[in-house]
Amino acid sequence: MVPKLRLLSPAGEAPAVPDTPDAELYHRLVRGEPRAAVLAWRAYAVMVRGLVVRSLGPGAEVEDRVQDVFAVFFRKVSTLKDPNALRSFLFGITLREIQTELRRRRVRSWLKLTSTGEPVETVAPADENARHAFDRLQRVLQSLDTRGHLAFVLRHFEGYELVEVAEALSCSLATVKRVLAAVETRVWSLAAQDPYLCPYLEPEATES
Amino acid sequence: MDSQKQSVSSPFARLGELARTVGTGQVSRAVDAVGERRAAEAFQNRGRAPRLRRIIGLATVLATAAAAFVIFSLQIVNHAVSWTVDGAPVGQGTYISPVHKEANVRFSEGTEFAVQRGGRLRVAEAGAKTVKAVLEVGASRVRIAQRSPISFRIEAGPFSVSPGAVASLMVEWLADELLRVSIFEGETSVQGTPSPLYLRAGQQVSANARDGTVEVGPIAGPTVSSAAPAEARQEVPRPPISSDEPAAPLAPALPSSGTARRGSWSDAVTAGDYGAVLREAERRGITSVLNDASLADLVALADAARLSGRVELGKRALVSERRRFARTTAAKDAAFYLGRIADDHEHAWTTAITWYETYLSEAPHGHFAAEAFGRKMVAISRLSGRAAARETAVEYLKRFPAGPHAGVARELTNE
């Protein structure tokens, strides 16, 4: 199922309006025009990479995961029924790749394996404290199960409505509410104990 | 709902803002250019990937199927250890008690047991890697198959015999107290003695459960030590395992020594000459012997009577032991033997249970504690049903997790 999601721009990032409309890019990709791949990359690479980084954290594997997403996208694009849903289609593929990577990481952690390589510049040049806090935030997220992890990212980083999160994760609204309630409690308790993350928590009283 | 609204309403709004600020997805132009080139190549190669994936997928499926087949086959090999008695399959725990001629127990991996006439053996456990047989009385020749993946263990009373690879040996459990193991080929270890024994071809061990004596010597007169030349070792007799002929009598049991049991009746029992003991007792007068004989003679008389089928005389001798020599180890053991007579010969389960409990209360850590406890469990199941024996089975497994009745106990607890 292809989730039909709205895409929100990260703060400070100009709204990503591709030069080539989805439908036209779709037809060029299906026809196999060599230029189409470059156009797709320029249109969507930032979106894909942003979601990957916010979900998986910065690391040497980010670019490889982005490439994996595009490889699957190029291979399956001809199966897309609605050419106008190209962006959502790619977003869905990205989510699945992230899910796969999260599961892979879980297995690696069971096997006590670590990924190798130094993080590449996949994060914006923010101040040192913010980058450090972002790293700590990723560690908190990695303590969650895969579905809770993605639900939290989609809800609180990407800003999706609960029904959209449910659609993206192929589960019911009630399940998403239950999953989010659990992971929010956990993230809150872990972040509240972390000196770098504590300042980023809004007091509960401000919740409307 | 948009991100602005989110930032106001959620306690995690600032965390979200942090994530979006730091993790924008923007990279340097160089990194992006590399990614763009790789994406273009992926696009060019997109048609080849499915074919390659199909091949890899097919190979994976085939490899998985092959691995599953191998594992399944190994499982069969590992878990389907079966055995036949004179060619007929029997179940685990079945007693093998040949009357007229020896019984040949053949395991699926090639190992053979030849249970001698008058002997009684059961295969208590047959696991993936181990087989445990319990020799309750008599003798059994054992030949471990070449390259056998199974580790065999033969338990006799408090002793445990573990033959090594390609071992050929005779295990005897006599008078419920004497273990004799003669090694014809290979190596064998014996546990249950004050310290574990490791025996080689040509050696024989005799261990007495009652008085704790242990004798290690050559099988026959000539000494065949571990340092003997190979030719000398090859002269060690190796009985044909599948022969239907009665087993040749083994060499004299124990070289005389200061620690060996003394007394002609005891020696006669050890040599298997029960008739001589009974004739001499009758000549002296049974009542007189029961009232006046030494403890050693009483014990010998009880053994000779039991093992030659004179159950009533055996009981009288055992009771006499308990009456006249109370508090001795022999008197405690007599309670166990009285339980066995009630159990095996009279099928009087209640009486048997009482005697086993008596033994366990008098000798909770005695040589026959595991055997008495296990037999009590079985007697309860026969008397009152398997459910009634479950509690005893649980207790048995706690006290003797590797005991001779552990398999039966596990079956009872799992029901």
Structural class of chain B: alpha+beta
**Span of the ends, CA to CA of chain B:** 60 Å
Q: Write out the CATH superfamily name of the largest domain in chain A.
A: RNA polymerase sigma factor, region 2, helix turn helix motif
- Element-level helix/strand string of chain B: HHHHEEEEEEEEEEEEEEEHHHHHHHHHHH
| Uncertain runs of chain B | 1-8, 221-262
Q: Total number of helical segments of chain A?
A: 8
Bin the strand percentage of chain B. 15-25%
- Main structural class of chain A: mainly alpha
Distance between the termini of chain A: 33 Å
How would you portray this structure in words?
The complex is a heterodimer of chains A (208) and B (415). Chain A has 208 residues and is an all-alpha fold. Chain A folds into two domains: 1-123, RNA polymerase sigma factor, region 2, helix turn helix motif (Rna Polymerase Sigma Factor, Chain: A, Orthogonal Bundle), CATH 1.10.1740.10; 125-208, Arc Repressor Mutant, subunit A (Orthogonal Bundle). Helices cover 61% and strands 0% of the residues of chain A. Chain A is built from eight helices and no strands. In chain A, helix 2 (34-56) packs across helix 4 (86-110). Chain A is globular. Chain B has 415 residues and is of the alpha+beta class. Chain B has three domains: 28-80; 83-234, Sandwich (Jelly Rolls); 264-414, Alpha Horseshoe (Serine Threonine Protein Phosphatase 5, Tetratricopeptide repeat). Chain B has a 15-stranded mixed beta sheet that branches. In chain B, strand 6 (120-126) and strand 7 (130-143) form a beta hairpin. The longest helix of chain B is centred in the N-terminal third of the chain and has 32 residues, at 48-79. Chains A and B meet through helix 2, helix 3, helix 5, helix 6 and helix 8 of A and helix 1, helix 2 and helix 3 of B.
